[in-house]
Design brief:
The chain contains 20 helices and 25 strands. It folds into three domains: about 190 residues, Histidine kinase-like ATPase, C-terminal domain (Heat Shock Protein 90, 2-Layer Sandwich), CATH 3.30.565.10; about 120 residues, Ribosomal Protein S5, domain 2, CATH 3.30.230; about 290 residues, no CATH class. Helix 1 crosses helix 4. It has about 625 residues and is an alpha+beta fold. Strands 1, 2, 3, 4, 5, 6, 7, 8 and 9 form a nine-stranded mixed beta sheet that branches. It has a five-stranded mixed beta sheet with strand order 10-11-16-13-14, sandwiched between helices. Strands 19-20-21-25 form a four-stranded antiparallel beta sheet. Strand 23 and strand 24 form a beta hairpin.
């Protein structure tokens, strides 16, 4: 077989396929170059979804003639020393500009502040022209036309102009969040203008995030600030009840670089798994600062994936910081629930909230939010149900549960709650004083500046669940020994993965050990799961480790059982409560973390301010 040497143009076109996937990739590379140049204002103009035109202008430091000529050659960069581990800029590979020039018509104009004039250079399908003088103020203008004209096959795989235009917008939004001090403008004939004013001061970052995600995020954000072993995590995360149906509103940055790393997303998923169903996703913007020597950003030319020297440390920091912030929020719920309620009143229609909360949540079986394998478990019929273990935490689980809301009768002799018996001072408390119960499920409470409507079943379900978790994890989970150990055959690499976390399984009642090079022996399973398919459980855990870098599947199943028991053990819809019982429920909500949302991520209460009520009646 004869070996041929590829031409330089073909080499550049092959390399461009890794760096330049679509117009949004071009925008990302050019904007990152502008940021690295020290620009404080960056303007992006596109046409035809970036297929016919992309122009990025900045007021950065600019380039002289010699630097401009080198900039369009492969592996030429001003951002990297000989130490590939010490990367402190967004770009460093020296591939973006030559890759763009290999598949498009590229023109660059640039001028340094002290130069007499600027310089212009063009690259067409990989052919570099001579540098020429050009009139220009300080900064750089990069113009890309006829993208992929030199590689028509790639052009066929692009999506519609609107889809490509939307992809560019999403790319810009991810970048602008990380650099609030820079003014960004995105415009063109194929889009409405997006302008992100530079923000400064103590709340600059939150103000910039709110420009991208909207004012509602500002009202529903939890501040994150945590540090562990030299790794610092800052940013803002939305309340669990402020969520979306996809993960597009999750922004994660490592040393200022926007990344879409599966391991980091897995950590976020793990932090919120107690509060959201699997088809809902939190809204957040997190910034991870880490020593460049402890992270590898050179995994792929697109620089969207990263690898950490200690991934367990990073994951633990993210999960711990998010859970602490959510816990410290106490009973706080999303303000958008009230907005949705106002809209429903004004339109005369009930509907699903865009945040995932509903105005009057229908009863949804918990199995809907979990896999079919978990849905088969029935805690009431299981011979291993741990009633005694949680009796103190939940008040027992009899056929007719009686939650600890007071020892008074369920209703007064005349069938109505004794509202007057409640201390009037309770109105000054966060959830106010109960005033009525509607449809035997919704508690209406009066606060000092409005009213609160509480879903009694959802609220008490969360209270019971939190009590059960505290009892469950305050000591090791009980396990049941198998009479005959079950042998599970697995690939050797999966056995190695399991053995690295085998010790952590013991606290959850799962005992496994290596059984030869390609198998494990399951000797003990968690008692509260009852009779289970141990082989399927082990394989699911292996898949979790391979996919997310952790084995949270076992904890998920235990939490599912606890949540199912909490659902059955909480005060039911349709049960009439006395005023004292309603008051006890409100006071427990105020004292219990995470009580603002039920186990499925729906709000447990909705608050309306007095001004909102007056607006409904036309008083404002």
């Amino acid at each position: 077989m004869r070996i041929n040497r590829l031409s330089e143009i073909v080499i550049n076109q092959i390399a461009a396929g890794e760096v330049i996937e679509r117009p949004a990739s071009v925008v990302k590379e050019l904007v990152e170059n502008a940021i690295d140049s020290g620009a404080t204002r960056i303007e992006i103009i596109t046409a035809a979804g970036g297929k016919s035109l992309i122009r990025v202008s900045d007021n950065g430091c600019g380039m002289g003639r010699d630097d401009l000529c080198l900039a369009v050659e492969r592996h030429c960069t001003s951002k990297l020393s000989d130490d590939l581990l010490d990367i402190r800029s967004l770009g460093f590979r020296g591939e973006a500009l030559p890759s763009i020039g290999a598949v498009a018509r590229l023109t660059i104009k640039s001028r340094q502040e002290n130069d007499d004039n600027g310089w212009k250079i063009s690259v067409t399908g990989g052919k570099v022209g001579a540098a020429k003088p050009s009139a220009l103020s300080k900064g750089t203008i990069v113009e890309v036309g006829d993208l992929f004209f030199a590689t028509p096959a790639r052009l066929k795989f692009l999506k519609s102009e609107r889809a490509e235009s939307n992809a560019i917008s999403e790319t810009i939004k991810r970048i602008v969040i990380a650099f609030p001090e820079i003014h960004f403008v995105l415009s063109g004939s194929d889009r409405t203008t997006l302008e992100f004013q530079a923000t400064h001061g103590e709340d600059a970052r939150l103000a910039r995030i709110s420009q991208v995600l909207g004012r509602e995020f500002f009202d529903n954000a939890l501040e994150i600030d945590a540090e562990r072993e030299g790794v610092r995590l800052t940013g803002f995360a939305g309340l669990p009840t402020f969520n979306r149906g996809n993960s597009q509103h999750q922004f994660i940055f490592v040393n200022g670089r926007p990344v879409r790393d599966k391991a980091l997303w897995g950590a976020v998923r793990g932090a919120y798994m107690d509060f959201l169903s699997r088809n809902r996703h939190p809204i957040l913007a997190l910034f991870l600062q880490i020593d460049p020597y402890s992270v590898d950003v050179n995994v792929h030319p697109a620089k969207a994936d990263v690898r950490f020297r200690d991934p367990g440390l990073v994951r633990g920091l993210i999960v711990g910081a998010l859970r602490e912030a959510i816990g410290n929020a106490g009973h706080r719920a999303s303000t958008s629930n009230a907005t949705d309620m106002m809209s429903a009143f004004q339109s005369g229609k009930n509907g699903q909230s865009h945040t995932g909360g509903t105005i009057a949540p229908d009863k949804v079986e918990y199995s809907q939010y979990h896999g079919a394998g978990n849905a088969r478990y029935d805690w009431q019929t299981s011979s291993n149900r741990p009633l005694g273990e949680f009796a103190d935490a939940t008040g027992g689980f009899s056929e007719q549960p009686q939650p600890d809301l007071g020892d008074m009768p369920l209703q007064s002799t005349d069938g109505r709650p004794n509202i007057e018996s409640i201390d009037q001072q309770a109105s000054s408390l966060p959830l106010g004083a109960p005033r009525a119960q509607l449809h035997e499920n919704y508690i209406v409470s009066q606060t000092s500046d409005g009213l609160v409507i509480v879903d009694q079943h959802a609220a008490h379900e969360r209270l019971v669940y939190e009590a059960m978790k505290e009892a469950l994890y305050s000591k090791a989970v009980s396990g049941q020994m198998l009479l005959i150990p079950e042998i599970v055959d697995l690939p050797e690499e999966d056995v190695d993965r399991l053995m690295t976390v085998a010790n952590s399984f013991e606290q959850f009642g799962l005992g496994i050990e290596r059984f030869g090079p390609g198998a494990v022996a399951v000797r003990e399973t968690p008692a509260m799961l009852g009779e289970i398919n141990a082989a399927n459980l082990v394989r699911d855990l292996v898949d979790d480790i391979a996919e997310w870098g952790s084995a949270d599947g076992l904890k998920d199943r235990l939490d599912y059982v606890a949540a199912t028991m909490a659902c059955h053990g909480s005060v039911r819809a349709g049960r009439r409560l006395k005023a004292e019982e309603m008051d006890a429920l409100l006071r427990k909500m105020e004292a219990t973390p995470n009580s603002g949302q039920c186990n499925h991520g729906r709000p447990t209460y909705i608050e309306l301010k007095l001004k909102d009520i007056e607006r409904l009646f036309g008083r404002r």
